[in-house]
Specification:
Layout: E1 5-6, E2 11-12, E3 17-21, H1 32-38, E4 44-52, E5 60-67, E6 71-72, E7 75-76, E8 91-97, E9 100-106, E10 111-116, E11 121-124, E12 128-134, E13 140-147, H2 155-160, E14 164-169, E15 172-177, H3 178-186
Antiparallel strand pairs: 1-2, 3-4, 4-5, 5-13, 6-7, 8-11, 8-13, 9-10, 9-12, 14-15
The structure holds fe (ii) ion.
Length: 188
C-alpha cells in the first residue's frame, strides 16, 4: 500500500488517525478558567496518523502529527506528551509544516527546547518525555519515527506534567518553569 501525507488535511489518509480535542486535555493546562471557557466549543487540538507496518524487535513505526494553533490563557496548544513505555527507546522527529517546538524533559530533570519547523530534524533520546507545542498561527505538522516496541506512556505525564511551560509573554513564546509562571504571572 502506498502511504502519502495529505498536507492540506495534515494526515496520512491510508493510516488510522486519532483526533484529540480540547476536552481530552483537561487537567493539562494551567489556566482552568480559560480552559473551561474554551472547552465549550471543544476544538480539535491535534491529530495523529499512525503507521504500524509490523510489530516486533527491529521494526519501526511512525506517526504524523498535526497540532493546531491556539492558546489556553497564555499557554500555547500542545500535545499531551509521553515517555516511551520502553524507556530506552529513542525517536526522530522531522518538521514538515508550521512553526513550533519540541519540549524534551529527561528523566534526570534536564530540559531541552528544540525548534520544530520544516526540514528541522530533532533527536529525542531515550528516557526523555516529549511534547510538541505550536507557537505559530498555522498548523504544525511533523513526522516521528520510533521503534515498534517503544510503546506510549501517557499516564506518567498526566500525573506530573512537564516542569516547564511554553507561554506567550510580551507577544513572544517563552519557556519558563511551571511554578515560576504560576507565581509571577498567573494571578496578576
Ligand atoms: Fe514518542
Amino acid at each position: 500500500m502506498i502511504h502519502k501525507i495529505n498536507f492540506d488535511l495534515g494526515v496520512i489518509e491510508s493510516a488510522p488517525t486519532t483526533v484529540r480535542s480540547l476536552i481530552d486535555l483537561r487537567g493539562y493546562f494551567i489556566d482552568e478558567d480559560s480552559f473551561n471557557a474554551a472547552v465549550q466549543k471543544n476544538p480539535v487540538v491535534y491529530t495523529l496518523s499512525s503507521l504500524e507496518y509490523a510489530q516486533g524487535e527491529g521494526q519501526l513505526h511512525c506517526g504524523l502529527g498535526t497540532l493546531m494553533p491556539g492558546k489556553i490563557g497564555s499557554e500555547y496548544f500542545f500535545t499531551r506528551g509521553h515517555l516511551h513505555t520502553w524507556r530506552a527507546a529513542a525517536e526522530v522527529y522531522l518538521g514538515l509544516a508550521g512553526e513550533g517546538y519540541l519540549l524534551l524533559e529527561h528523566e534526570n530533570g534536564q530540559t531541552e527546547f528544540q525548534v520544530l519547523s520544516p526540514g528541522q530534524i530533532v533527536y529525542v533520546p531515550g528516557f526523555t518525555a516529549h511534547r510538541t507545542i505550536n507557537t505559530s498561527k498555522t498548523p504544525l505538522t511533523y513526522l516521528g519515527i520510533y521503534p515498534a516496541q517503544a510503546g506510549h506512556d501517557y499516564a506518567s505525564i498526566k500525573s506530573t506534567n512537564f516542569r516547564h511551560v511554553v507561554v506567550e509573554i510580551d507577544g513572544l513564546p517563552q519557556l519558563i518553569e511551571r511554578n515560576e509562571y504560576i507565581t509571577r504571572y498567573l494571578h496578576l
